[in-house]
Amino acid sequence: MSFSTDVRGELARVKVEDICCAKSELASALLASGGIAWRGAERYAVSITATDAATVRRYFSMLKKHWGIAGEIRVVSGDRLNGLTRYRLVIEEADAGALLKELGLLEKPGPFGIRQVPPDDITGYSCCKKSFVRAAFLMCGEVSNPERSYHIEIAAPSEAFAQRVKECLEYFKIACSLTARRGKYVVYIKRAEGISEMLSLLGAGAAVLTLENIRIQKQVSGHVNRQMNFDQSNINRTVEAAGTVIEDIKYIDAELGLDKLPKSLREMAFARANNPEHSLSALGELMEPPLGKSGVNARLRRLTEIADKLRGGEEVRFGRHKD
Question: What pTM was estimated for this model as a whole?
């Protein structure tokens, strides 16, 4: 199953006890699924169609509990749906008009007397705002697998509906964006924090834990990769710098002989030539007594200076005591 399916399954189990929240959620579900059709003379066909059986059963139970309406669940499939199965909750026409009135979805100026969004009082309370967004996601929402990307969206049937979803999310300080795409108005979030906040708000606690676990794993993995890249970069720079000094050491050996160097420089030349991957600190540990990074760097610079003088034909002198 997809992550979206898991989230919808979890949200379909969230309990709604208060009638105000039931009104908000059912109104949202009907509008988001496009399940209201005008039959003329104040007659309406009302249904809710979803990809998940659990979602349809949720609204079947909600209708029965809060309105005493027994809907009929049908399984719909066929070539028109590309072979996909859909589940449809059909409400008897005798109950449809009264239900739509109670949900505030009938209004004479609207197209065929149907509002694009319920009145403000239907989503007035914070709990009702949550319920409105929850149904919108159940009907037309998607969330990507967090292992691949961070993206959650609700493809609303109208701009007014999308704007209401956006307002509800922003009421809870959840930042989201709205765009038009292929005849739909899409409310979306692309930040992991925002997605986590939205899922938590709607009641998908298990999905939030899954997302956060994956997010932490990604952060740890990213940190480890960055550290490895940093370490590798340091190693590459060390090896590159060592390669230059080693060339200088080989030149000194060929032109002068390493045995002619003072003991301190001779030891450093052998240490660097035999350990090109060692850092300055590691080279210092090989000396007797051990040297710090600045001491090692000073001796390596001295070897380079000697090689440069030899290349320029200059005489190299070390004083009275080579050792």
Answer: 0.68
